[in-house]
Structures are given as structure tokens and as C-alpha cells.
Amino acid sequence: MNEPKVDPTEGLVLRRMEPEDLPAVLETDALCLPRPWGEAGWREELGSPFGLCLVLEEGGVMVGHIAVKRVADELHVTTLAVRSEHRHRGYARALVESAVSESPDARHAYLEVRPSNAAARALYGSLGFVEVGLRRRYYGDEDALLMARDLGD
Question: pLDDT for 8-32, tens place per residue?
Fold first, then answer.
């Protein structure tokens, strides 16, 4: 993603995350996720040659983000968050699809999701992810469903 993707009619910008975005990312994580990453984890992810972190802005305000790891022919969604007041607008879908499109060598995508998160499970299912396994106590307080998507040849 060399240039931000812009939809001027909606005031949307999808771009790579920069270190300057971390305060807004940490705030979004704290509001959206039961176990958010800390600043050190985000800085490590931003510096990783295998990482891809994207943010979505609406009207100049960050409304969501995604982080993925790209290794060999696999893409692993490590975190995804959209602020509650901006949900149900297709933003999480746009973030996932953009991460996939920015990973043209990936043949398979994976992610973990809480079994209790019905909305996320429905979203991932609509994006072609299927349940392929269970990671016991992945979140400490809850198991995780492992979901996979074949990205084709």
C-alpha cells in the first residue's frame, strides 16, 4: 500500500500505521478489546519485517485498525478493532480485505476469535473463513476458535 486508499465521498482513508498513530491505536484497543496490546507490543509489530499494520480514518479520526503477520505463504490476523460507534459500516471487512490484498503471496489466512464473539464470527464467516480448530485457554479466560481462509493459487 504505497498511497492511502481514499474515498472522498465518505471521508475515508485506509493507510499503513505509523508510530505517531499509537496513542489513538492504544485508546481504540482499550475501548474494544478485553486484552489489548501494550505500546511495546505495537512498536515491535511496526518494526517487524513480517508485520503489516493498517489504520482506517473517517474524517481525519482513526476509527479502526488491523495487524497481520505475513510469513511464507501464510497471513495471520493478529488483531482487529473498530470503535463501537463506527461498527456495522463495513469497516472491519475493509480492513481484513485490504490486509489480504496487500499480501499477494499469501495462500492461506488464519485468525483466532472468541467463541462468545458472535458478531466477529459472523463477519469472518462472510469473508470465507471457516472454523478449523480450537486453541484451549488461548485468551486465558476463554478458548479461541481457529479460523482459516483459502486465498487460492
Answer: 456 789 999 999 999 999 999 999 9
Place of cell 509489530: 45
User: Which residue of the set 45, 58, 112, 131 is catalytic?
Assistant: 112
Catalytic residue at 110?
no
Domain that holds residue 81: 5-150
Strand partners, 134: 145
> Does 112 qualify as catalytic in the annotation?
yes
For residue 119, what is the domain's CATH number?
A: 3.40.630.30
User: pLDDT by residue (tens digit) across 36-74?
Assistant: 899 999 999 999 999 999 999 998 899 999 999 999 999
In the sheet with 108-113, reading across from the earlier edge strand, the strands are 5-7, 12-16, 51-58, 61-71, 74-82, 108-113, 144-150, 130-135
Provide the pLDDT for residue 7: 55
Chain center to CA of 29: 11
Structural domain count of the chain: 1
Q: pLDDT tens digit string along 110-149?
A: 999 999 999 999 999 999 999 999 999 888 888 999 999 9
